[in-house]
What we know:
By secondary structure, the chain is of the alpha+beta class. The protein has one domain: Nuclear Transport Factor 2, Chain: A. The chain is built from seven helices and seven strands. The chain has helices at residues 3-19, 22-27, 44-56, 143-146, 154-162, 177-191, 197-201; strands at residues 29-36, 41-43, 61-65, 69-73, 76-91, 94-110, 116-132. Strands 1, 2, 3, 4, 5, 6 and 7 form a seven-stranded mixed beta sheet that branches. This is Nuclear transport factor 2 family protein. Residues 4-121 form the SnoaL-like domain. It comes from Streptomyces gibsoniae. Pfam families: SnoaL_4.
Amino acid sequence: MSSDDVTQLVLRERQSRDRGWYGEMADCFADDSIVQMSWFTGSGADFVRQTRAMAGRGDYAVHRLSPPAERIDGDRALAELPLMIEWRIDIDGVEADLASACRSQYRAERGADGIWRIARITSIYEKDTLVPVLPGTRLAVDPGELTRYRPSYRFLAWYLNRKGYTVGDHHLGDDQPVAVTGQYRAEHTWLHQGPTPAASAGTRKEHHS
Length: 209
């Protein structure tokens, strides 16, 4: 069992993202990895590149992490990481804090070289809040604009779409429990299927910052 290795992999990916250590972040992902979250769906390599571009535009968030829960079967592991995504943002000249609670599910595989790498990240959204930094300040948010967004990530979707990102209404959230149950079932099925040929080969590309 290598639960410590999996824990450090998951935490290192989040830390590297928050600190702008993009070379280290890239090293966390397998070559065929997939990332699915509110503003991005694609490969792990593209996720690193787009994260770097997002930070370059000044769109910056930090992640407050809770201990991950892990299950390991041979060379496969599942880790669920509860977290809070925190944004300090500007809404028409008013400073505000946006906080989105979610849990990210990590698939990890151990290659022939003995190193664990991320195969997939899928986010499940719980709820979010939007408050002014200065108590009593009014935020100019039209309630009518929010009706089109789902309650599990309403403010996050509203803000990111306002900034020019594309956030659809199809993402996993606790307001759609049937889909979430199906996600857990699929993850546990994957865990016990055994290694894929690609994972067994343990090959990957080198990444540099």
